[in-house]
Amino acid sequence: MTGLLAHDALLVSLGIILLGIIAAPVAVRRNRRDLIALAYGAVYTNFLLVSIATLCMIVALVSHDFSISYVAQVGSRSTPLFYTIISLWGALEGSILFWAWVLSMYSAVAVWINRKREGNLIPYTAVALLSVAFFFGVLLIGPANPFKPVSPVPLDGPGPNALLQNHILMAIHPPLLYLGYVGMSVPFGFAVGAMLSGEVTNDAWITLSRRWTMGAWAFLSAAIIAGMWWSYEVLGWGGYWAWDPVENASFMPWLTATAYLHSVVVQERRGMLRLWNLNLVMGTFVLTVLGTFLTRSGIISSVHSFTQGTIGYYFLAFIALVLVGALAMVAGNSERLRTTGRFDSAASRETIFLLNNLFLTAFMFTVLVGTLFPLVAEMRGAKVSVGPPFFNRMTLPVIAALIFLMGVGPALPWKSASEAEVKAKLGPPFIAAFVSAALAFAIGVRPPYALAAFFFVGYALFANFREYWIGVSARMKAHGESIPVALGRLVRANNRRYGGYVAHVGVLLVALGIAASSAFRAEREVTLKPGESMSVAGQTVRLKGLAGRQEPQRAVIAATMEVMKGDKVIATMEPRMNYYATSSAPVATPQVRSTIKGDLYLTLMAFPQDGSNATIKMIVQPLIPWMWFGGGVIVLGALICMLPVYRRKDVPVVAVPPALQPTSPPALEPQLVDAP
Amino acid sequence: MTRRKSIIAGVVVLAAAFGWLLYGNLDKNIVFFLTPKELLAKGNEGYDVPLRLGGMVKAGTVNYDTATHDLRFMMTDGFADVKVHSQGTPPQMFRDSIGVVVEGRLEHDSVFKATNLLVKHSNEYHPPKAGEKPQEMYRSLIKGSGS
Q1: Does the pLDDT at position A106 exceed 70?
Q2: Closest Cα of chain B to A305: distance in Å?
Q3: Cys staple from A633: which of A24, A506, A538, A647, with CB 3.0 to 4.6 Å?
Q4: A&B contacts, CB < 8 Å
């Protein structure tokens, strides 16, 4: 019943989508507002229908309706309700359904907010978004149909993949990733809409796509950090990034989106890089589809690839279509997109933004080549992999350069800086850089790259905080404001700039966590009898005992470990192995104890049948929690950037406003604008 | 026009340098995946290069020291055998005749020194096939009698 309803809803939505795709261009040609309303209506209706299908799936999952193929595949009566609901994105078909739903939701919001906008930008944007929706609609009817009837109806199912029901982050990482990934379709929609409607020369679409990219970027950043965290908490190796194709797939669009968020400012301020920005928006979208292809087609074996099927060919065809279409459209518009401004000086913010884009793009291509090379080689018959050494060697210098630029960019003015200005702005952070590197050396950091990381992170952290201090102290002097008031008004008056600096600080905290944890990682593996203890990097744990127990959906073998301080037990930890009915291998479940200084990480590696001892892997790494915290700071920065535009007529929007009238009321009503 | 041309030339030079760097590093850091037979067929070229070696644990050859976590076994693909030496507790699934992949290099004493050992089981999710009883499978696993 629910299966039929959902399937019909998806079928009808395909028809509605086609209707919208046809209606919009006709409406524009004949100047018929009623047909435009029809096209917009198609976007809303698609949202409604895909929502119905998604809701049907959730109902089917919760009610254990095993007559529906997807439920029969991932459902199980013994799985707790929470993991039953989130198994919506736990396998291929459900995740495509979720993709389609997020896309339909975003499309409806994007069109609704801008429905009253004049001109042809939004109708054509609707066409672009509906076209993407059409592709996913076809997948859901064809190779990724989650609602296939199952006969005979099984009494119970196997439950979700063991690794995917082992941690709470499984409820957080995938939705964040979809919100980020799919969010990149909306700027793409605006870009295509701008090109089709001929409105690519005015910057309206740039403003819209910039805001949407910002939102999607925030989600994607959070998703990548949450994915690292999941890998760290669940996989038992004590690491968080392995240049795995799946990780790379999420990282590549992040790189190009980051580049776009910077270069778009150059276009807004100086009228340059128009063509380049268009390419970045298109490229980011293509990379999200490529990433979905890599992770969902089964071409790469990992926890993210489910079953192999024909779906890969659909994706390849879609990517080819988008690439050809995008290139043709960009080529057709390239003459119109000539730069109006020009670079005045090497010592200017736009130069730094250009370098930032150069490095981010090179970074993306490095990751792309390293990710795709094994696939190309395999087509020619050789089984190869590209290991972390390639990625590390190629990207560490780029990362160091980008971190340095993060400190230089904010300090330089637009257009041209005088020599005195350059000295005054770029000099002092070097003191912080040397102090930071010296401190790192003093506590024992020796690898050159780690030292360089501390040097550049020190430089950039100081430079970004200094920008805040310059702005705040100028306000305090000019208006006699207190620090919090000055800070609040400074950020409010120029939220994009100061939000950007907050995001910088977040990235730098993540970099610090990575540098410190990889430079100081210490580990040991010891077989302990109850009562025996082991030590790593000054920390000691003692095995209390080993015990097994049965939980509703799994069997558990756990080692009880006592964290010691001298003779006192200060905490107990319980690394364990979980045995799921569906998994032939046990899932090792590490336990982490975090403090502000770093993490203690315990994994149960092995035990004999009589439980007389346990082999424990103990890893001590400093500053790991700073990475997760830094992720939060990045999102905070993005949120500040997305604050509604705050217009004050009498104040020019610059970092240090010239004399204000102290009597003018400080807070006007913030005006909501058409942005997420 | 000359300004435009010089920009294009600059971009081309940069892209070429970058491509050359990429190629050079890829060439040095590709890790081939071989079977014992393919490794031995390489002769002298097989020594001392990073490799991933895949095959089966030859029955009866596993020698594991629980005190030092020193693991030695023979890997076979049915055609050739290679001695493997690794340090660290093998995964719980490790046993005779199971598929394994080791990462490391073949040393000059013809022993493959593994820095990482993976048991080859499918992480890929699949619903149980007819006749497959996962419940019993994992119960027997807890008892340690294998699946």
Answers
A1: yes
A2: 7
A3: A506
A4: 119
